[in-house]
Write a structure and sequence with these properties.
By secondary structure, this protein is an alpha/beta fold. The chain contains 8 helices and 7 strands; from the N terminus they run βαβαβαβαβααβααβ. The chain has helices spanning 21-32, 44-56, 71-85, 108-136, 148-151, 157-177, 202-210, 220-231; strands spanning 12-15, 36-40, 61-64, 90-93, 139-144, 182-189, 242-245.
Length: 252
Amino acid sequence: MLMNSKPLSGQRALVTGAGQGIGRAIALKLFELGAKVAVNDLNEPAGKETVSLIEAKGGCAVFCGFSVAEYQRVQEEVKKLEKELAGLEILVNNAGITRDQILPRMKPEQWQEVIAVNLTGAFNCARAASRVMVKRHYGRIISLSSVVAYLGQAGQANYAASKAGIIGLTRSLALELAPYQITVNAIAPGLIETAMTEKIPEAMRKEIMKRIPLGRPGRPEEVAEAAAFLCLPGSGYITGQVIHLNGGLYLG
């Protein structure tokens, strides 16, 4: 029997923060598997570049530049996408920011901004997308957490808290949405080579590398493979789970 090379053919996906790094890799992978992709990013040139990469390979993609932190805007934009794409089966909550600072020096705005984008943004998008999926009794929601949700990280109390919140949100939504055949899972990457991790001080990077049994950082494409797996029809019995993708840095 021939394997279906386009198992997501006919499905529609929204990937937030897809202008670069992990988000772009996921958007490209879902396209390769046959999905139409809505590329979200506040960086319009970067987001449109992701769209161009998909279109250059004969795929279908649209750009949407809304902020995931703006609740009402998200609800309106997802409704528009549902009409434009004629449906929405997949949501990948990837948009995220850092505002690193040790707690005694962290400003309330640095805390609130990270929570607003990383955690509340995931809620905003999941709330809008789930309303579409419930009507169809089918869906896949994947959110990006982080290894720091489990290990913690000095100077990242805001980021770690937001990513730990993703795990609680994921498990709760998995229970709520299971009756509608909507699966909800999370991926917790470790050190992945992206623009965000390039900002890590060299001394800290070397210390992290010492703790990774596989001896190397991960690639965005490896995270994309995990996200794609959770979107496949054959993954329909996996829900409320966290895939740890960290080279052995955390073995929980």
